[in-house]
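Backbone shape codes
____________________
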Amino acid sequence: IPLSILCSICALSATNQTINIMTLGGLALAVGILVDDATVTIENIERYLEEGHDLHTAILEGAAQIAVPALVSTLCICIVFLPMFFLSGVAKYLFVPLAEAVVFAMLASYVLSRTLVPTLAMYLLKVKAAHAARGRRSWNPFKLFQQSFERGFERMRLNYQLLLTTFVYRRFVFVPVFLALCAGGFLLFPWLGQDFFPSSDNGQFRLHFRTKTGTRIEETARLNDLIDQSLRRMIPARELDSIVDNIGVPQSGINTTYDNSGLLGSAEGNILVSLKEDHRPTQQWVTALRPKLNKEFPDTLFYFLPADMVTQILNFGLPAPIDVQVVGANTEGNRKFADSILPRIQQVPGIVDLRIQQPFDQPKLHITVDRTKAQGAGITERDVSASLLVSLSGSGQETPTFFLNPNGVLYSVVTQAPQYSIQSLQDLQNVPITAPGAAKGEILGDVGTISRGSGMAGINHYNIKRVIDIYGAVEGRDLGATGKDVTRIVDAARKNLPRGSDVVIRGQIETMRTSYIGLVAGLGVAIVLVYLLIVVNFQSWLDPLIIVSALPAALTGIVLFLFLTNTHLSVPALMGSIMCMGVATANSILVVSFAKERLEHHHDALQAAIEAGFTRFRPVLMTALAMIIGMIPMALGLGEGGEQNAPLGRAVIGGLLCATIATLFFVPAVFSLIHNLTRRTGTAVGRSRRLEPVRH
């Protein structure tokens, strides 16, 4: 295991990958199956030793016998990740590193099992061979425990043989009943729920508040202090770590670019609350604070923004996972359309923090220039706007000036009228207007009039077109079902759009649908690739079909386990499903390859199926249990960010549990059914070449 992981890390470094959640998740995913190739090699060597061969011969013959079948099993696991490299968008950048980590580790495991493991066996198995030759009774407690375990395991294997014999001889009943049970379990799929990516608890939440548009920054700061005090009263000090406030729009354009909270002006602010290590689940605090804050501050709009980095990335810079965009040049008509569908979307179960991002009540002062008076004074409208810009915003935008310090630092020099000098409309009318061709100085009141009005607080564009955004989040329900309801409402209201306008749904919903299409297609392609790989190795179309007959049970197990653990279907769960296809197929290869050998020996399909299941019982269980045990820590979702890959581990565990049952019972029954029918009818469905047994 450590050498395979080290080889994978070296290969990841060579391909310019980094150590992150996805690559570490891939290595954790591979841990359970890295020992598979080495276990197969040692087990086959042990079989030769028990048959009386010397150690050198047992190692050479045992390792050589399973080289090709073990390679096929390893390639079956690796090839299922091939479709990942053809994904696009965010799914590609998330899961290609994971796939590379697994594939590199698996290939290294196979190479080591062919080279290092037989070499070590030459030294470490000597004592056991000599001890067996002496035939003395051992009082080693580990040896006694192993002997006791072997006796119990043998009894369990005999009971399995009796049960398998019953199913094989009643195959005409067992096979359709098993398929019906798989189909019945798969019917739970619509109730799983669909999310793009599981949410993680990083001990932080981000609260955004918006008061009346146009509120001065001082009033917003006072309101922010009151909200902070309320948060400190609601959250006990033993759980609250820190509160960081950010009020208004950043001055720097760079900071504005990297801000994804949707700040529009001085009437808004963000509050980042960090909780201590031993805190209640963050989502519980979010759910509890939402109604309390709305009740205490009824004139303020509150909504929660994603605080963890993964969700912010998956939102592609949007402040919410659902974005209903009304696109078009008719701003007033688009506003009425957005106002009409907002109440209907609010009725969708699971929708929270719904709002129209662009307020339309921003107070404005409209200045109308009297062109006749301005022309008489030698002033243009550009001169008026430039003078106002210098007085109200500073000269940095109109005439940028810089000072170069002798130490090499460049400073901006900005001239601006003091804010306290412009406190009323009269002060604004007294702003001096200067122009290069003016005979004398004028003031704004001489050449223009001021009137009050209102308008949009912010103007947004997407692909050049003007948009109005309706943002919303999801709570207590899966994103897929909520998105379907929102889509149905939007489609029903589409006929009311103004001429030339359109409405589209962006956000995580759009990305999730694209990723799901790619991953589901990848799952189907993975099954086809595995089938074709086995066809090439078996030189038959029929036997690979028997091998992949265990995959429907694996899919049913994934659905059942996700349903029982209340886990929504997500991109990591689909990745686990793809991984499960390879491992389940590798186990089926063990049974079918040995059954083919026994069938060619005595030409009895029923007896060959029973012997294959009985002989391969131990290696199939070992392979499945190693993978399942390796997935348990991931499935529990322990540690910071553990929730991200928990669905992946749960999907693998559920799929392998049912796939193992299918491999031990269903696959032998299907083998006996098909081969018995083909031998009776005398039809040759496919020519098969003899394969050496993979493991005993």
